[in-house]
Amino acid sequence: MIRINSTLTGIAFFFALCLFFICPTGYLAAQPVKNSLQKDAASLVNVFLGTSGDHGQMSPAASYPFSMLSIGPQTYPNTHTGYEYNAKKFLGFTHNRFEGVGCTGSGGLILIKPFIGQSPDSELIKSAQSASPGFYSVSFTNRITAELSVFHKSGMHRYQFPEGEKGFSIDLRHSLSNGFVNEEHRIERNTLSGWVDAKTTCSAGKYRLYYFAEFNKGINLQEQGNHKLLGKLQPDMRSAEIRIALSSVSIDYAKASLFSNDFDALKQKSANEWNSLLNTIKVKGEPEREKLFYSLLYRAVQSPYVISEKDGIYKGTNGTEQHSSDIRYNGWAVWDNYRTQLPLLSIAWPERYKGISASLADLYRFGKKDYATQNEPSNTVRTEHTIVVLLDAYRKGYKVEFSKIIDSLIKEVDGLDFSRPDKALESSYDAWALSEILGILKKKELSEKYKQKALQYKEYWNKDFKDLSRPDIDRMQARGLYQGTIWQYRWFVPFDVKGLIELTGGDKEYTSQLDRFFENDYYNHANEPDLQVPLMYNASPEPWKSQALMHQLAADTVVQYYFNDNSRGIDPFVDVIYKNEPAAYIRTMDDDAGAMSAWYVFAACGFSPACVGWPVYYLNLPLFQSVQFSWPGRKPFTIKVENYSPGNRYIGKVILNGKELNRNYITHEEIMSGGTIVFEASGTPVKNWGIKEQWISQVDK
Residue ranges of the Glycosyl hydrolase family 92 N-terminal domain (predicted)? Predict the structure, then answer.
């Protein structure tokens, strides 16, 4: 095996990549890319995937890519996102939510409920519903129908009513998980404006949303007390519309964002933008697998949220007003999605990722917290490992001004927790990233200091993870672990797999222990702590086993004993994980802001991040006959599979731009440069492929 020197490789990548990321960031989600593979990708999306129970915690709300506004149904009972697919009783419609994240959900602000008769307490019972990207529609047994659509930070409600008395009930203190803090509002004729303060996910911080809503003329808005209002329609009105927009800066900005055309125009614009964005990745294969792919790709671009206005004004996480020529974002779940979703965004939408990476760097300027501040510009979750994401972005060619935030980076790493076995490994990863950043800044002595701090992981590993004979190694949360077992966390040394192999006893023992891990079903795809382990055979003499695992976890039946409620079930989950239905995923498996959806997208395309912090991806056999990444103004990157069959899972040969590739990885530069990679598929393991030249992360002594 050839063990590549990661540092030298990364530096070479960076200088080459600098040429590829100098284009300005546009305000739109994507620009249309014209080629022969253009398709109506949005029509393939099933927005009801993962919307039942604790099977993803997703929402069918009308949304727009990376928008803080998502107008969706609020059901009784509800789940983390306020909606349960099987529920029939609706409470109304709310205007934000954070998808697939933990605790008990967040968002659910500004509840609007249509009603008939004199009492707003009359029930809404679902009779039928439909939805597509940017659009949601439902009809009720009382003959009210509702349609919702969103474009950027603006959206519209459109209602049809039967004859008789009717109106809207508006609850400004409604929220998920008791998150309401305070609000102020103003009624002026047929408009309602104000702000709402609410708790972030897990109630760790607080955010403020400004809004401006415009109702049809003839709707009389009245105070009802206790943060509630009533909007009565004239008896002869059979239809009504509500325009609403959000801002993290001010009411005036929200008002300026209101969509001025009609509902159908807004719906069409939203659909067009969704199509442009989803068409960045074009897949060709089995129709049902295509539908699953686009349904999951759709989930991967719900957050982070655009918080800046068109003139560049935005609020920092310290509450101060700022200005940027690039789009600014907030709404993070970094500990969950730094492994998959953020790397996917860095490839598929580089014009977006420029602002995303800069926004992450901003957190250190404004006083970063692991979870949230008390002045967040939007709902958010957590930001651990942001330092790793910034190193990763820099090595992919994105501009990160480390010199301006290095003191904050050092302060964060100096304050990391090494008190528990899992925390020790997690914190060592961040210490390694800081060492690499200090090396980039030519601070040699400090870089060496934090490299040695990172390498202390070996002491923690030998103490808690080496001995596999102890009785608690397969017990959830043993020794204070967070949502995992000793078996699952022991592999978490992504920055020094070479060192980990040495700790286990060498290649043979490393491979044997991986075999034991998977043969005994110790792996847990319901959560992230061991999400990278299926790829770790790529650092062994048997990379074909990673190819088999990636295919199985993405498209075949698996056995899973662990659940995200910190339990190891007596009866296992035995099924396909990624299903295009409301009860998707493993029970209790959250999508975690696109983390799990993005994992599938990578697996389906045939490459996945080897170690976030290095611009390298391990190869597996794609799930489609062809995949193409297309970017405005750039040469597309095309992936083809010869001898394709839905059941084939092994790589026989790889040709990159006409030359045979003898290594089991591809670089970020090679992807972004465009060209063609051809996989030759095999139904049986090709055991001599991918072992001559392997990428294995290591820390130089």
Answer: 44-220
